[in-house]
Amino acid sequence: MTKRDYYFDNAKFLLIFLVVFGHAIQSLIETDPLLLSLYKTIYFFHMPAFILVAGYFAKGIYKKGLFTKLIKKLIIPYLIFQLIYTLYYYFLRNEQSLTVDPFNPQWSLWFLISMFFWSLLLLLFVHVMKLSLKAALPISIALGLLVGFIGDYSTILSISRTFVFFPFFLLGYYADRSWFYALKKKPLRLAAIFSLTSAFLFMILVPEWSNNWLLGSHSYENTGVQTEISPLIRIIIYTVNIWLVASFFALTPEENHFYTKWGKNTLYVYLLHGFIIQFYREADFGVFINPYVSLLFIMISSWLLTILLSTNWVTAFAQPLIELKASRLKRR
Description:
The chain is mainly α. The chain has one domain (6-322). The protein has helices spanning 6-25, 33-56, 66-92, 110-128, 133-146, 159-174, 177-182, 186-205, 212-215, 230-251, 266-283, 291-308, 312-322. Helix 1 runs parallel beside helix 11 (266-283). The two termini are 14 Å apart. The model has no long low-confidence stretch (mean pLDDT 91).
């Protein structure tokens, strides 16, 4: 049995915590500048880093039966959770009509659809066209720039996010473990702390620009910027994405910690946390006492929720829906 790499398990757990935390504060960011700045800083790197890790672990999947495997692993769970979330929102929000639309992913389910298309694009780029990183990466970035012109169709089957974030999946596929080792040098770790702190302070000082840029799901016309200069802005954002992603990986622990073992269950957290977060949003608790106490409370709650959804009990219960197989509860 291949020994698990603690470094990537740590990275995945910390990133999924940031996903949960980012979703938890999303409903409050418009009323609190601190939360808005923190939200933007997180969104600059957490999904690009998560997608890069997904690409890194896609190295061995291109074997016979790939398409069938992708259907079972991604498309069927997507359809199951698309139906479940549609029903859940219908009752939670007392909606007037019930419409199941498989072409417009519910909330965070876009990731499953995009993973499916990233895998097929990677097959095209690497195994059919046999492109090197130097050739493939500029093409993927160009596609990410061009998709912003699509307009109203950008959310269908997660088209926009698929192409906007594909460069990170591609980069992860080509990445070597030595790249991550190189980031662990002390000067780079100090630079990473400075970089993330600077990014947060910059968000506080320049709060006007739309965070729609960071979601990857909006066309240029929905960003509040002239379409002509929008590709340039996206290039700048790509640059900052890479800078902060590298900073995150420089600070990610390599040792085995108490949370490391939960890094293997991030998909469960990703698919299940929406039920809790959406209930929290509909309850409209808002900011209580003061923003700083609320921030601390939300952060701790997000951490505990991430742990809870990573446990054996939850994963054993949800495995038939997510992995389409029953599981006996096992000790780690």
